[in-house]
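Morning F.,

Quick status update on the modeling queue. The single chain you submitted on Monday has been processed. Sequence for confirmation:
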Amino acid sequence: MAGSEQPVIIIGGGIIGLASAWALHRRAIPCIVLDQEPIHDGASLGNAGLIVYGHPPLTRPGVSVQGLKWMFDSKSPLYIKPRFDGDLARWLLTFHRHCNKPHFEACLAVLAHLGWETARGFDEMRSDASIDCDWRPRGWLDVCLESSSLDESEREIEHLSPFGYTAERLDGDALRGTDPAFGDEVAGAVRFDQSATMDPLAFMRSLRRWLEREGVEIREGPRRGGVERLLTENERVTGVELASGEVIETERVVLAAGSWSGPLAATVGLNVPLQPARGYHRELTGLPAMPRMGGVLRETFIAFTPMFDRLRLAGTLEIAGHGRPWTRSRLENLTRAAQPYLRDLDEATITAEWAGYRPCTPDGMPMIGEVPWAKGLVVATGHAMMGMTLGPVTGRLVAEILCDGRPSIESPMLDPARFGRVD
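Structure tokens below.
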């Protein structure tokens, strides 16, 4: 495959798309990145900025049952807007079937392996592109108000320790002794060591600038970068047709369009059952005491991340479909729910707000691989909240598939054709 002079077409300018371009460029493979929207507002730039190696899947045991209790509460961590939608009903049923211990453990084994590999990828990418993104390789904190929550968090170490990951429990006084930003109500935290935090906006902007300096073409907007359909002939990809009618011929395409990947995959008969789960963030400046490490406020599922001179509060999953108005209460709840954990939030100034979509598969695992009946088409999507974390290793696997014929990490749990063909 590597001998073709035609550029690889990468559909999607988020972290997966740009990481794929970076990995292919390192192999001297020309690329064109296409995105239907300006690349400055997607989930890769607006995420929490927590790089959690060994991140567990969404399909934790019991989550689907808990989700039913949360479903009608617009302020809950997981909000599913009730509506008549056959695709959503099928997605929820499949999700429920995968929320069990054996599937969780199988997922974690794959994700733990990917975590170690993506850690090395971040080091290479930051060095290659001279990326300044306030990278803090100090791990992350699972901060708890209740002692029972702290006990639960500590038990989660058992899931990761077989794969070489380490963590430490800190009681409230020990935590405040190292970081006075946490309030007196906090019972403690578990510090997970093998992770990092960063400013994803700074990271993505730096990576894009480097790619463009290196000659990678990036085309944005509905006419220049919006792809209408994928083209195939004799079970091989032959190009893409843009919304403008322009056809770009190529024998290699990477579908990394996030939550918009499903309709494009359907044009070649591939079933990619994604639900767009909207997340929110709010940024604060002027805090008297900025947390020194990022993490998650366990009882509320809200992430907090220091980024240069500001604090980003992020989180929630809102499955409501594309294009619906923001749920203002979910955005406002970010600061309200964080106040018991962090001191002096009411003294800070809100400087930015954002909402964007994460692509969620019903089994909690990303889709990474070549489509058997569309040779040359590599799917790389469905990473949910793990997109930024798994960006470097996903880009590497994409390049290996296109250049070497197979990836160095293979698992049926990543198979892009595991959901079959479109009915």
